[in-house]
Write a structure and sequence with these properties.
Helix 2 runs parallel beside helix 4 and helix 6 runs antiparallel to helix 7. The radius of gyration is 13 Å and the shape is globular. The chain is mainly α.
Length: 118
Amino acid sequence: MKQFILIILFTIIGSVAFAQKGNKDVYYGNKSYREGDLKTAVKLYQKALDVEPENKAARINLAIAQSKLLATEASAENFDKALAGNKNNPALEAKLNYDKGTALAKGKKYEPAIDAFK
């Protein structure tokens, strides 16, 4: 549910701010995600990050989509990058740590998952 809320939030942000480089790819990545085409969503989020590496919406949504595809290592790495860029937002930081812990637990990486949940 938390992941769905993040995706909706970033869909709204993406549709309002198409002027930022890469947001078109985030928008279509979110559309693919909603349609269940996670592989296309991952490609589009990565394309957005290739254009604008600091695109927070693309980074977070990429980590979430990778988690759904059980790409544990890549997902955890992107959650870490998203966390590094969101130190001033404790609520978002808590959600990202939770989602990172969930991704790691799905990949049977229990010790790092426990650390993320802390």
